[in-house]
Amino acid sequence: MDVSLSIPSAPAASMLVDKDNMSDDKISIFIPRSPSNKTKPLGFQQNEASDDPPPLSAKSMTLALIKKVVAEFLGTFLLIFTVLSALIMNEAHNGALGLLGVAASAGMAVVVIVSSIFHVSGGQLNPAVSVTMAVFGHLPPAHLVPYVVAQLLGSTAASFVVKALYDPVNLGATVATVPRIGAFEAFWVEFITTFILLFVITALSTDPRAVKELIAVGAAAAVMMSALISGESTGGSMNPARTLGTAIATGTYTKIWIYIVAPPLGAIAGCGAYHALK
Question: How many angstroms separate the CA atoms of 114 and 121, rounded?
Fold first, then answer.
């Protein structure tokens, strides 16, 4: 028996048998073909126009931004609280943690916090990061000021909470970032360490070829490494919010311009360097 299968271009019934040509040895079966649905799985056979998500309302966009800003505030608060607590405990117990322990505390805090809020706000926690992401188009310009304000408030709040909880004798000398080397050298140390941090963050968070699951680990490793090489010379800030928050709480503003200027410039340079390599 000869069975032939033909597919018409225009939609037809689900299955039609050609009775005029039907015989004992030949059966023609007509199967319709739908151009708009032929490549879509069952359950997603819709018009092409409906594939685009509906636009968000102004209220929904505002609510989403509020959630992002709150996440940045909480994340920065927890990060700075952890770092300052580690510094105070190290000082109170005669260097029990050491530089390695303090750097590890900062690194582990980055892993935990960034992993928790990356899907909400990006887990930036640092005005230098936010400014750089905005400059290179990875953060909407309208989000920049709310992010930076939230980070500064989070750091300042954490600094005052630490001051109230521990009440160390000399809080400024323990937690404030004051350079122990010349201003020129301190500027470049902060510039280079922040360059490293943003080079890693840009590579893992913006390149589609990167393994996104390693963003928190990579950023934490960069923070820990940079803290180890700069902790004894500049305090290993890499973050204007970290420096400014503790400065406000302790009244220590020695050469604070270094920590306000160098990290953003180093961050932009680091991000730009990776973009040049892509």
Answer: 9
Burial of 225 (0-12, 13-18, 19+ CB in 10 A): middle
Q: What's phi and psi for 6, nearest 5 deg?
A: -130, 140
The residues, any chain, with a CB within 8 Å of residue 56's CB and separated by 6 or more, are 64
- What's the pTM value of the predicted model, to 2 decimals? 0.78
Domains and CATH numbers, the chain: 1-35 (no CATH), 58-277 (1.20.1080.10)
In tens, the pLDDT along 125-174 reads 999 999 999 999 999 999 999 999 999 999 999 999 999 998 777 888 88
Q: Which two tokens stand for residue 151?
A: 């980070």
For 94, 136, 198, 226, 275, the CA distances from 127, given in Å and listed in that order, are: 33, 14, 12, 17, 20
Rounded to 10 deg, the angle between the 215-230 and 98-121 helix axes is: 150
Q: How many CB atoms lie within 10 A of CB 176?
A: 23
The two tokens of residue 168 are 């160390």
- Quick one: which of 262, 272, 211, 219 has its CA closest to 238? 262
Q: Are 193 and 264 in contact (CB under 8 A)?
A: no
Distance between CA atoms of 17 and 38, rounded to whole angstroms? 22
Residue 147's closest CA among 72, 224, 213? 72
In the sheet where 26-30 sits, what is the strand order? 2-6, 26-30, 16-17
Cα Dmax for the chain: 103
